[in-house]
Amino acid sequence: MYKGATVGVIVPAYNEAKLIGRVVETMPDYIDKIIVVDDASRDSTCEVVRSYKSSLGDRLILIEHEKNQGVGGAIASGYKWARDNKLEISVVMAGDAQMDPGDLPKLLDPVLNGEADYTKGNRLFSGEAWKIIPKLRYFGNAILSLLTKIASGYWHVADSQSGYTATTLEVLKTLDLDGIHKRYGVPNDLLVKLNVYGFRVKDVPITPIYGIGEESGIRINRVVFTLSFLLLKLFFWRMREKYIIRDFHPLIFFYSLGLTLFPAGLLLGLYLFSHRLFLGPVSATSALFATFLFVSGLQSLFFAMWFDMEYSRNNLRR
Q1: Which of 24, 113, 119, 255 has a 20 to 30 Å separation from 244 between CA atoms?
Q2: With 90 as the cut, is the pLDDT of residue 212 above it?
Q3: pTM (two decimals)
Q4: What is the mean pLDDT of the chain?
Q5: 305-313 contacts: CB < 8 A, separation 24 or more?
Q6: CA distances from 260 to 229, 257, 300 (A)
């Protein structure tokens, strides 16, 4: 137990035979359950995990998927086990040893102290992250973090793709665990849903770990595109669920106006600019109209974001 609370660490694993042993061996003694979810690995991940069963006994739980469900599906299976067995805090730690067990107290303390319902590791707090994290991944993460702020309403949260998290039993009982996004978008999906239910999320600094032999299957260019589309869908879902169905808020009008005027002004402005370059002068009224649309749309979007920021800050659970 950790300060009187039962804690389980969920370890989603797919083809992690090389490093899963390191994750299990370095798990602190105060962790009550180590829940490894093998997502239909094609290597010897399960065999490596079973080799620790004799020394760890019931402390080590192995859940085996018959079919690959993606990292989100693996996390959902671990969450269900933790929920059904009433673990008070559930942590997610990757099976590739890129998450430092020494950072666990930073994630657990805010939850235990009642400061947050969900804590998330942030690798970007330290200036060392720029030196350690591969540059392409760093920029991709920055883009997705900005988009996730807009989609989720948690404007204070950065490093959206970090999967090192801790959450309360209440959160697991509230969320539809079967509806969690199955692939790499699971951290973004969870943040959006946590905001709709009004849970408090806190960023905590963690140590980024790279270059220990891990092999990533993520292709940044592809992931940024697919997750951007996912975040767009999640943004509109949150607007409907939170600001229309559950509680109507005028920011809907500002977002609607901004999403109409801003692209219209931008497209008209680009058309007039190209016309001026290649065909000849444009009328002053047309240029003024394009500017009006663009500026009015941008102002509406900023007002909507500000309303969203204030609402989320003042209406989260206490």
Answers
A1: 119
A2: no
A3: 0.88
A4: 89
A5: 305/150, 305/155, 307/249, 307/250, 307/251, 307/254, 308/153, 308/155, 308/251, 309/153, 309/155, 311/153, 311/249, 311/251, 312/153, 312/154, 312/155, 312/195
A6: 18, 5, 10
